[in-house]
Structures are given as C-alpha cells and as structure tokens.
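Here's what a typical entry looks like (Glycosyltransferase):
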Amino acid sequence: MQQPNVSIIVPVYNAEKGIRRCVDSILGQEYRDVEVLLVDDGSTDSSPAILDAYAAADPRVTVWHRRNSGVSATRNFALGQAHGRWIQFLDADDWITEDATKLLVRAGEENGADMVIADFYRVVGDDVAVKGQMAQRQTLMTREEYADEMMKSPADFYYGVIWNKLYRRDIIESYQVRMDERLDWCEDFIFNLEYVLHARTVFPLHSPIYYYVKTEGSLVSRNDVSDTVRMKRTVLQYYRDFYKDVFDEDEYKRRRADVYRYLVSFATDDAAISVMPGTMKLGDERVLAYVPDGMEANPFLGTYYAVRILERYLDRVAEQTDLPLRQVRILAYLHYGRGSVDMTALSDFIGQPRPATMLDLQRLDMGGWIDVTWISANEPSVEFTEKGRRVAFAIDHARDDFQSLFALDDTAWRHVYDVMADALGRTTKALVRSTKDAERQEEAERKAAKREAKQAAKIAKQEAKAAAKAARLEARQSAGQEEGSAEPMREPTDAVDAVDATDATVRGTGAML
C-alpha cells in the first residue's frame, strides 16, 4: 500500500447521530491522498455498523472495534496505526469544510511548518461564528513566537484542542508524543504542549475549516469554578515545564507571573450566540449554491456553479487577507492583466459602478497591496507590492484549484457541470438537503402530534360522556330510593334508553370539554 500523505483520525463512541456527517465531510475532501482511521471505542448504539459500512464502501477507510477505554487511549491506538506524513484529528460530532485538508497540507508544505493551526466555526444550534486568534500574524512563526502568543490567552480552545491543527507524524513518533490516558480533562492541551516543544515552526491559517458543535458536559458548560481551578492545578506542572523549556532561565523568571495567569484563565470557546456580532445562521457562512433536485443538465447551470466555486475559492483569499471579496476579485483581474487598466472593463468585470471601483483601487493602494499611478483620470497603471504579490500567489492557488476540478472527469461539457456540482455540493447540497429533511421531519412530527392530540381528546370526551351517564343514572336511582313512595327508576333496557336518560347531562358535560 502506498503511503498516504495524511492520516485522519476519528475516535467514535455512541455517535450515531452525527458520525455520518463527520465521515462524509472527510470522504468528500478535495484532497484525496488520505487514509481515514475510524476507531470505535466500545459503542453500544449503531455506530459500529455505520463505520463498517463506510469501510466496505471506500478503501481509504479502516475501522477498528475496541473495548471502551476513553478518548485518549483511542487516539493513542490510532496514532500507532497511522501511516501518513501528516496527522489530522476530528471528533465524531463535528465536521470539516470540503477544502480543510487541502488548506492545512498546503500551508504546512509551502511554508515548511511543523504544525498548522487554523480558525474554526463554532456551532450552537442553528447559529455559527468564526473563532480564531493571532489575526495579525500571517507568516511562519517560531516556537518561541507561538508560545508568546499562546500566553496571551492560554485557555482558549484555539490553542488547546487538537482538531484545528495539522501535525507531522515523524515528530510525534520520534518523541513518542501521546495523550495522557490518566487524565479525563485537558489531555489534548497537554498533547499540544508536548508537541510544540519539539516543533520548530508553526503556521497560523486564517481560514475557518472545522465545525465544532457545542455539546453538554464540556468544560465551558461547568459552573463550578473551584472545580475548574482544582483540575487546572493538575495541569499547571505541564504548562510550567513547557515554558521553562521554551524560555531561558532569566526570561522564565521575568515571565513567571504571565505563566501563572493560566490558573485564572478559564477555558472558553466564545460560544456562538445569535445576538452577538459576527454570529450567522448556519449555512450563511460560506458561498453556497441552491439548485433544486431534478433540474436537467444545462450550460446555464454549469456557469452558475462555476461562478459560485470561483467565489468560494476567492473567498478563502479574502478570509486570509481581511479584504472584501470584491477587492480580491479586483486583485485577480489586475494580476492577470498587468500594466495600465481599462476602468470600464474592470468595472464591468466586478459588476459595480466605476466610481465604486475607483474607490476600491484607492483603498487597495492605501492598504499597501498595490501601487497605483494615474496616467489619466480614467486610466491607472498598477504594480503589485510585495504584500500584494502574496495575495496574487493565493489567487493562483484559487485558479489551480478550479482548474483541477476538470481533471476529475471527462472535460466534455456535458460532464463539466457534474464535476462542479459535485465539488460544490459536497457540503452545500448536504447542508441544504439535511435542512429540508429536518423541516419535513419536523412538519411530520407536528402532524402526528396533532393527530394524537385529536384522538386523545376524542377518547377523553367519550370517557367523560360515559362517566356522566353513569353519574346521572346513579343520582336518579338514589333519589328514587330516598323518596320511598316513588317507583324506583328502572334500568335502561338498551343503549337508546341510556342515551335518552342522560342526554341533558352529556350536553352539560360536553360544554365543559
């Protein structure tokens, strides 16, 4: 078997509700040179059967079934089975964008990084928000620089978790970096500390590539502050030793107070809250495409997909540079048409009026991305700065990614829209379809509940009617017996007599139902 470039590890325990979404997002990656290691940690639901079905359908998937031993032991076992040059982790409740592995590997290999750390999406119900740190750092960092950044917010999920990072397996194996199986809290944070001690460089990827789903029982949900501090004391020794190794003795003494700030820095992932700035509805965070099922293949649909895919690729460039998408599109136009610029053509390309386009050019000039010289009032000459050339390099990646789609299938036009639809739909269609399915399921449940309520009301009315009849008969019998001289009330001889005898009572009871 040829060595895969990436080993993707997923520990699974009773994850039947989310595991399909997780594995589908892995198998739908644009980056294909992966092995997927799914380790069942003694699940008692349908997770084992689901995993086996994936292994039978895709040769890249390998499944192991083990006795329940905890997530740390499960991850350690998977690390011992991995063959890839790089290691990527996922949790079974979460999922990744279709370009996640590609972006991580590209960042690691092009920058010579020993670890890549990426932004992520924080999902709470239907709300999602982008989370990350080090926005000002856009280049390769030394271990010391990374440690200094981490000290500013040591308990942030961004630094502590393992699922937003890419690791070199040779470092893991050379130094036997593993999860501490004795701990049931913060073991991934300690793994990261141990790993970074042996890493020389770290690259911050400013693209959110991971969907982290809030689950009950996590540390950020706990209200017992004293318990959190107590657990942190058990981890402080690792944290303190890490900085003793990173800094020299004098520097450590000078920064000791900053190191101990870890004790009062409570773990946080800054939950996505609908009323907070930056929070979106799930599905609005990416460039999407909406095409109804059953639409016939046609060149208009192909063009629609092509535009959406290019926008999605360019949107990644916008994320990494903090530029609006329209300005990245301007840079793409300028990159492939250097020299003097026809403002009419550029404005038409961007799809906005000339004054707005000229204003964007001025902003790019002031931001240091390009140098603009105005030959005339309507004809600028543009040169890329060093900062702008880095963006142009990223734009070339977007171009290559788009063109690579056509290598997946026959390049005849009738197949092009299929290829693009597949690439875009790996996340989009699944998201839209799952939303529609959820809506249909919710509507079906509402109807079923309404039917059940109606039936229950009918039965209750029938029981009340019968009870009223019995009470009426009993009252009339008692009244007849007490009068003595009156003739006792006869029992009704059939159903008609019973209804007649209690009709007034039933009407009165029915009015109260």
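The chain has a mean pLDDT of 80.

More examples are in the samples folder.
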